[in-house]
Design goal:
about 0% strand; mainly alpha; about 210 residues
Length: about 210
């Protein structure tokens, strides 16, 4: 178990995430085909290929710089709504980490909250709109609570992941209100939001590395 994360850990986590996204491509494609364009899985794979290229060639030991540069690399080739929001998440987390040399629960919570705020500012969605925020917001809230209770990182991220998973499952019963899925209205009820599912995959990958 890792109680703190250094720059080398961030690189390793992103490499692992690239593989986990590739492994989950069929799941994301199936979910996105039901209420979206069906390109979410492949778009993320394309973006993460660029992240891998960057990581293989960078010597940076700055957590902030690594995250922001990965966001830039990802955005160069990945084009979709979720890809745009994922870029924003990485970039905002990187900015929040400007003074961090190590990440523990408090820092992780601050970075995740920064990502939430940036996504909400960009898209205008809120909890219950059947978007990735239905997984991301609960995860951030639980992580923030864990930080306040001084829980160590492994326990904190497991609790946060469980909240994200519950939030993603809850989107099955929701009707999409924003974005492309919003045009389908009632037809989206009964389908899990693909963006929320992607958030769970991301957090699950990070949690597996930490724990």
């Amino acid at each position: 178990m890792r109680k703190q994360l250094l720059a080398a850990d961030i690189k390793a986590m992103l490499f692992n995430l690239s593989k986990d996204i590739s492994d989950a491509e069929h799941i994301l494609t199936e979910l996105d085909s039901a209420i979206g364009d069906g390109d979410l899985g492949m778009t993320l794979i394309i973006g993460f290929r660029e992240i891998e290229k960057y990581l293989k060639n960078t010597s940076s030991e700055s957590i902030s710089e690594i995250l922001k540069d990965c966001a830039d690399a990802f955005s160069e080739k990945a084009a979709s709504t979720f890809a745009t929001l994922f870029t924003i998440m990485l970039k905002s987390a990187g900015k929040e980490a400007a003074s961090y040399t190590a990440i523990e629960t408090r820092e992780a919570a601050s970075m995740l909250n920064a990502a939430v705020a940036a996504v909400q500012k960009r898209g205008g969605a809120k909890l219950g709109d059947k978007t990735l925020l239905d997984a991301l917001i609960p995860a951030a809230e639980v992580l923030t609570k864990a930080a306040a209770e001084k829980k160590e990182l492994p326990e904190a991220v497991q609790l946060s992941l469980a909240a994200a998973q519950a939030g993603a499952e809850n989107t099955v019963q929701l009707k999409a209100k924003v974005g492309r899925s919003g045009y389908l209205g009632d037809r989206t009820v009964g389908q899990k939001d693909p963006g929320a599912a992607a958030v769970v995959i991301i957090l699950q990958s990070f949690t597996q590395y930490i724990c």
